[in-house]
Write a structure and sequence with these properties.
The complex is a heterodimer of chains A (about 240) and B (about 220). Chain A has about 240 residues and is an alpha/beta fold. Chain A has one domain: Glutaconate Coenzyme A-transferase (3-Layer(aba) Sandwich), CATH 3.40.1080. Chain A is built from six helices and twelve strands. Chain A is globular, with a radius of gyration of 18 Å. With about 220 residues, chain B is of the alpha/beta class. Chain B has one domain: Glutaconate Coenzyme A-transferase (3-Layer(aba) Sandwich). A ten-stranded mixed sheet of chain B has the order 4-3-2-1-5-8-10-11-12-13, with helices on both faces. A three-stranded mixed sheet of chain B has the order 7-6-9, with no helix packed on it. In chain B, helix 3 crosses helix 4. Classes of the chains: A alpha/beta (about 240), B alpha/beta (about 220). The interface between A and B is large, with 57 and 48 residues.
Chain lengths: ~240, ~220
């Protein structure tokens, strides 16, 4: 019998070792698997390369906590601003940063999950972020060569799952999660609930279970309300 | 700059109104964070325009009322938003396929500088003064069918933002079609900047003084 559910956090995070590369889903607090991230921060693992859209926000939870714990040696993201934990380490030179345009980041992850080695994109052509990269004129327009970006582990958040690892999402909680699920060698999903096999309408499953290795139920996992304006720092 | 103002700059609301009025029925539109977001409140009643948010929303609605917020629904600025009837949700790769693939009719962005060639600089003012961060700006500027900029005409210290050549790092080359500043509405053409409208009391001579690149005038 296929059962991807794991009984507890220790089983969910087993085998994540020092130096691992880790994809982390989420855009803002929505779709960010904070329970998994917080536990990883406490696990004592070191030297992680984290691939995520942001660098977290609050230092006490999620990516802010993971970076603050000293577990992360490199961050690949599109918008690291708004994270005091990241700023502190970055200023001291304790964390390496690779900034990638958001759509290029998404497509690099999608490519990795889809078995595509690299692709040419017009995004970033002629800018500082294309320096040192192969550029080719295609159809009269400059395109930049960008390589696929997969990882040892993907930590994602979904909404409802079944024991095969089929996943649904809620609201804007999809964001990077479905493509990261495809691009992780070991994909671990934090979900709000698990229903019996067959109960999820196949028409509404977004991530088929083939992309998922472990499912951990974390009850009450609603993101916090974003009642204050988070955009002062242009938090894209 | 000590002479008394003989013109009245467009207010933020007036700028948003000018932009909104130029958005065509049926367009799919991405509004950037900050001032461009205000445009949503000024789209004429009865004109169907579909708002895109790069984190996976088409059909984004207004900010929710008190106690109505869905914690699972945020916009690109990480603020809770609502959905309109007909909205759809999708993942980031699809969202940026819409942008890069030329399916988004318009994006409205802020800017540090716009060159007369349409080059846009809006993501970094220096190589070292703070953490670099680009978000989705490069994808939007490179991919949307129309790229409009909303900005003050000059910096806080009075330096022109409409220039011959950008000094700051580029977001995208030859990307901007039109600029809505607080002093004028300006098209970016093959021949450079062409002024279409000016703030009340503004003169052609004064506007040129506040602009680094040469201006042509074809007021509508």
């Amino acid at each position: 019998m296929i059962d991807k559910q794991v009984p507890d956090m220790a089983a969910a995070l087993a085998d994540i070792g020092d130096g691992a590369s880790v994809l982390v889903g989420g855009f803002g607090a929505v779709g960010q698997p904070n329970a998994l991230i917080d536990a990883l921060a406490l696990s004592g693992v070191r030297g992680l390369t984290v691939i995520a859209n942001n660098a977290g926000f609050e230092p006490q939870t999620g990516l802010g906590k993971l970076i603050g714990s000293g577990a992360v040696s490199k961050l690949i993201c599109s918008f690291p601003r708004g994270s005091t934990a990241f700023d502190a380490r970055y200023e001291k030179g304790e964390i390496e940063l690779e900034v990638v345009p958001q759509g290029t980041l998404a497509e690099r992850i999608r490519a990795a999950g889809a078995g595509i080695g690299a692709f040419y994109t017009p995004t970033g052509a002629g800018t500082r972020l294309a320096e040192g990269k192969e550029t080719r004129n295609i159809g009269g327009r400059d395109h930049v060569l960008e390589y696929a970006l997969g990882a040892d582990v993907a930590l994602i958040q979904a909404y409802i799952a079944d024991r095969w690892g089929n996943l649904t999402y809620k609201g804007s909680g999809r964001n990077f999660n479905p493509i990261m699920a495809m691009a992780g060698k070991l994909t671990i999903a934090q979900v709000a609930s698990v229903v019996p096999l067959g109960e999820l309408d196949p028409n509404i499953i977004v991530t088929p279970g083939i992309f998922v290795n472990r499912v951990l139920t974390v009850a009450g996992g609603d993101p916090p309300l974003a009642t204050t304006s988070a955009s002062k720092e242009g938090a894209r | 700059m000590t002479a008394a103002l003989d013109h009245t700059p467009f207010s933020r609301k007036e700028m948003a109104g000018l932009v909104a009025n130029d958005i065509a029925e049926g367009w799919y539109v991405n509004l950037g964070i900050g001032l461009p977001t205000v445009v949503a409140d000024h789209i004429p009643v009865g004109r169907e325009v579909v708002l895109h948010s790069e984190n996976g929303i088409l059909g984004m609605g207004p900010v929710p009322g008190p106690n109505e917020a869905d914690p699972w629904l945020v916009n690109a600025g990480k603020e809770n938003v609502t959905l309109v009837a007909g909205a759809s949700l999708f993942h980031h790769a699809d969202s940026f396929a819409m942008i890069r693939g030329g399916h988004i009719d318009l994006c409205v962005l802020g800017a540090f500088e716009i060159a007369e060639t349409g080059d846009l600089a809006n993501w970094s003012t220096s190589g070292s003064d703070r953490t670099p961060a680009v978000g989705g700006a490069m994808d939007l500027a490179a991919g949307a069918r129309n790229v409009w900029v909303m900005t003050t005409h000059v910096t806080k210290s009075g330096e022109p933002k409409l220039v011959r050549q950008c000094r700051y790092p580029l977001t995208a080359a030859r990307a901007v079609n039109r600029v809505y500043s607080d002093l004028a509405v300006i098209d970016v053409t093959e021949g450079g900047f062409v002024v279409r409208a000016m703030a009340p009391g503004m003169t052609q001579g004064r506007l040129q003084e506040l602009t680094d690149a040469p201006l042509a005038f074809s007021l509508r």
